[in-house]
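Re: export button greyed out
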Amino acid sequence: MNNYLQTDEWNIIEEGFHADKQCASESIFSLANGQIGQRANFEETYSSDSMQGSYAAGITFWDETVVGWWKNGLPHHYSCTPNSPNWSGIRVRLIDEEIDMAQWEVDAFRRELHMRTGILERTCQITSPKDKTVQVQVERFNSMDEQNLCIIKYQITSVNYKGKVSLIPFIDGDVTHESANLSKKPWNIIKSEVSNNGAYIWTQIKRETTQMCCACQYQLFKNEKEITKGPIKIEKDKLVGYSIGEEIKPGETLTLYKYTTIESTLYIDRNLLVTEALKNAQKAKEKGWLQLKEAHKQQWTRIWDECDVTIEGDAKAQQAIRYNIFQLLQTYQGKDPRLNIAAKGFTGEKYGGNTYWNTELCCVPFMLLSVPFPIAKNLLLYRYHQLGKAIKNAELLGFTKGAALYPMVTANGEECHNEWEITFEEIHRNSIIVYAIDQYVRYTGDHSYVVDYGLEVMIAIARFWQQRVSFSTIKNKYVLLGVTGPNEYENNVNNNWYTNYGCVQCLKLTLHYLQEVAEQRPTEWANLMDKVQLQEKEIQDWQAIVEDMYFPVDQERDLFLQEDGYLDKELKSVEEINPKERPINQYWSWDRILRSCFIKQSDVLLGIYLYYTNFSEEQIKNNFHFYEPKTLHESSLSPFVHAILAARIGELEKAYSLFMQSTRIDLDDYNNEVEQGLHITSMAGGWLAIVEGFAGMTVKKDQLHFHPQIPKEWRAYSFRVNFMKNKLFIRITDKSISFRLEEGEQATLYVNKKKITLIYQKALTLKI
Amino acid sequence: MNNYLQTDEWNIIEEGFHADKQCASESIFSLANGQIGQRANFEETYSSDSMQGSYAAGITFWDETVVGWWKNGLPHHYSCTPNSPNWSGIRVRLIDEEIDMAQWEVDAFRRELHMRTGILERTCQITSPKDKTVQVQVERFNSMDEQNLCIIKYQITSVNYKGKVSLIPFIDGDVTHESANLSKKPWNIIKSEVSNNGAYIWTQIKRETTQMCCACQYQLFKNEKEITKGPIKIEKDKLVGYSIGEEIKPGETLTLYKYTTIESTLYIDRNLLVTEALKNAQKAKEKGWLQLKEAHKQQWTRIWDECDVTIEGDAKAQQAIRYNIFQLLQTYQGKDPRLNIAAKGFTGEKYGGNTYWNTELCCVPFMLLSVPFPIAKNLLLYRYHQLGKAIKNAELLGFTKGAALYPMVTANGEECHNEWEITFEEIHRNSIIVYAIDQYVRYTGDHSYVVDYGLEVMIAIARFWQQRVSFSTIKNKYVLLGVTGPNEYENNVNNNWYTNYGCVQCLKLTLHYLQEVAEQRPTEWANLMDKVQLQEKEIQDWQAIVEDMYFPVDQERDLFLQEDGYLDKELKSVEEINPKERPINQYWSWDRILRSCFIKQSDVLLGIYLYYTNFSEEQIKNNFHFYEPKTLHESSLSPFVHAILAARIGELEKAYSLFMQSTRIDLDDYNNEVEQGLHITSMAGGWLAIVEGFAGMTVKKDQLHFHPQIPKEWRAYSFRVNFMKNKLFIRITDKSISFRLEEGEQATLYVNKKKITLIYQKALTLKI
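Workaround output, generated via the alternate export path:
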């Protein structure tokens, strides 16, 4: 657990330098803008533990797979977003000494991530081994206004030093991707040059055609006066930059502005890549620091107006929920359906920058409810465009006739995970894709999505399920053998309740939407049937499975069972585990984890959460009280689900503690791994815990419902939700719920089952 | 399937060159002598498909593990017997052309493995692209008399060529270990030199201390006359040898003898390594080809006198069983308890030259019954000496108090397999080690082994089982969750019948021998109790498990079940699989294999075979008829077990076909993989199928029983078995069984339950 960060409602603050936490801080203070992002590596040289990381969305490096070699159907390649050329570096020399916070004394230090403005700031006073003392102040941002720009203001003020300071802004293409197998150096350098128009490195990813160009310009000021004398050009094979020297004395300040553009062939034709990169760096320099910063801040103001959440009376919770929203919207801006939300965003190498089912589980509902609908729609279209590859993926595993299995991990639709128990067996991932389509329709009312895109995906997934089930003669039911549920602490089980349930829901939804489209859009329906060649027999098969699927249950205790045989385990509570052995995945051998009753994230509770309209409060209670004590929450996807259910059954203390665990998982480093990067996708979970948990928001029969509650730690909380054509502002205290309709003419909704109607901009407060 | 080899009772013959089968032939014609061995690579250059392989027993290369990286308890290194310096190379040049059977026309070709003498012979006539025609005859052997020697006679006779022939015997240290991850070149070369005493390469395995030295001498004859003029020395960094040129004309013959010694620090102090290698090469040269060959042949005569098996009337079966015996005894001679029997012996890289449970399952019984007892005892001692590491291995997985888990794959006792479903879960391997100890005692009568070594191993294994079981409250029985049985086409199952049964047998045997030793050897018992600190509570726990273990059964059909839930599968017969999709592990995705009913090798039938005294013929029949049709036999350990059981229930046709599959698995290449190497360990299975299957040999209450039968394809068959102090020769026809007691004064045994008594060297024939 971390506890070195200060609590503040709008900022993340490290006061005093925590060198032992530097890798954690590099993750926590990460910056991004949906297109580029980087860890909070210091600009200047830092010779101690650090994990360098700069990433650009949509750029893929195909690495060699080294596991599971002999099992058919596993992919031969693994994709990852490679570590990009380091564009944020600025070395600083004071004649014979170079600034290196690992070697210099740190007299004072403050690092601050300003979430309101998206600016990272560092101020420190440091003393060299030879006793030169300077103050450094750095501000940087990745522009939310022009997403190809990383802008840095680097200021150095002498305390006791008199002499020359050399500032060396550079771009380094010789970066290492630590977790790569095939080549630790992902980039071939096509050209590196320092021209009069800027310094640039032009690179191509190894074995692929994607190219990138990073170009930079700079400005240097001494005190208030710009220094325009020519710099020394640094032009190496894999590194370019400038060295600009200037004399200073105590009290004097040098200020360097570094304007870097990061361009790739994702958006620019390769013939124009260098020209555009140089031009844009030049343009940025012409606009200058203040103008760029202002435009960037305005975008953040817009974002916060759209989706800020307030929590009054609990600064830790307030800080955390803003941090989650901030990081999520730094990672994804929804402008390009080729992009998705990496599990660790732009904050580390783990999970390779790839897409997981986390997107549909957490991010789609958050985006749907928080930001304009086209953003969530782009996440859905990402999967739609990859349908062909999902069908190919299923074919590799022996499925036929257009059955689709979406990948567990992917960059471009091809599977690139290769542990058989996950790749082949964690097939529940197919269900959440259908769930997301249905949710999109239910929240937006946009039924045309179904006929244009969604139904085709659903049919392909239904075909997969039909081929994947088998019929057990001794049970006289359909069964799903050999699966791994979301609880990855069980592998290759039979009849995982969640997977079986999800399968049936997929088939039901497919049948439902098939009928809807047939009735309401007969022409499009006929075209689609022509395209997918759906047979009547298939529909009958789906219906048969819906009717006759087997579910493992304990009727006595009214429980849904994790899977067949779960009750053979020694049933214990997580509290019985020695705390020194947690998280158990870092201490226990895999077999011990598998045969224990302990659950990484609860499948059954997840199913109850997702398909909540089908379960009674009694059922939630029974299952929650059975599974929650056995759940380790060693998946970041776990606590928010439990928080929501705890709130729904009125157990607010439990809900609050799970909410805090979900929301502060990285700030407090619950699972002792934040140095690897942030849990970006699950950051949506904290928001869902507030809205769907404490505020009790549900959608039933296309109507919005609230059952507001408030944790005793809070005085009040507020948030906004989009639903259909409306945007609502909601504030809840322990006594009341207030509404303001910010978009839409009129809205009808239910508070504790009581119908209310809102009028545009007219506030309404109800007692609760 | 292969069908290019000729059938012959004493030889393996390839008539005509089958270039497309060269890799397969390299495996099939492999030579070894228990200490060194190599694939049948041509001596001269061969530029087409080939897998170079020379191996020395007991030498280990630690390679990097690249799978399962994040799962605790998996080993970080994988051991393998590295590809050794190539000691059998002889290049041949005819001025401007070099012999290369891939490039030259092969006019005639015959390759023959003489199993009676252990000599590999090749005769061929070949024509170069420029029309030079020569005949080549090569004989080679790895001396069974002096196990550090590889001896080659290479003869070239001109048909139409007049000019110089250069013969270049060499040793090449720059070899590639194809399947290595960390370094494809396993050897550092310490020194390579061509001195007057011979050419040698002195190497050290990377990252380890083991050293090896290969040294060679040669003799050259033209027609009958020795050529003694000085050769050109070839002395490169990683290759040494000689080039010896001589003019020949049509009808003339050059004969090169290459005498190579392969020495290592396993047997020679590193300071003496080079000296000894050179001295031994020189000594071999002095003895000369004829004397060395004679001594080698004498050893093979002794071996065949000891354990030849005859089958009359079925040359294919006769050839195959001799081939199996030949390959087994080439691989293991039982002289060094640090050595074991690699799954592929010295015939390929697959399985890394490591020890598997195959040894105890097949090889220990074969060795016990066929060759002097100390040989099998050394196999047992191998495990005894590794007990400490087996305890460490269990500790890594969280077990305590001296519990031992023997490794699945090992060179020196450390686990080096790393697929979790096998490494962590295929724990049945512990049982066969206890089984082997018990079998040794039952066959040899050597009870002192128990007190000196065996019981300590048993106690450690019993401790493992006690910690590994758990108690199911709903079953009110002990269960074993999360295991993989010998049928590796199921992973992470609960209550695998074979594993549960083996666990109970281990505990029973441990309790039995504990009592025996306590009663009969009280002093040693007290010492052992002092050493292992056994508690009374442990004994009670073991008894409780013996009494209350759960076994999955189908009572209706009187079946033992593969595991919990097996009957939920769609039960099909192997015949329903498209033959083009077999072996299924080469065509089906892993999940499809796992959820199918198809069995790689049948656990239940294996258990019934091993613990046969506990089961009725009716039980064998029921289970055999249920499981055999579902069994793929895609493990080489499978068919012989089924053959034995089929014979026991009188189904001789089935038994015969399974026997042939087991015995000719490599000659006929049943599983389409012989090019990777031979199934050495399972070669004992064919022998067991004859003796325990057709001849119906069992041991009940320390008495030897036979229930002789004969397949209709055979006129008669004979074999020898060691039992207690006796060696019996047995011959069976369709009408009679004959005995001759070759060692021991007198023996009592049972034929079809009728007691008979044999007297030394007095023949006895009974009608059957």
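Residues 5-61+82-307 of chain A form a domain with the Beta-galactosidase; Chain A, domain 5 fold (CATH 2.70.98.40). The button fix ships in the next patch.
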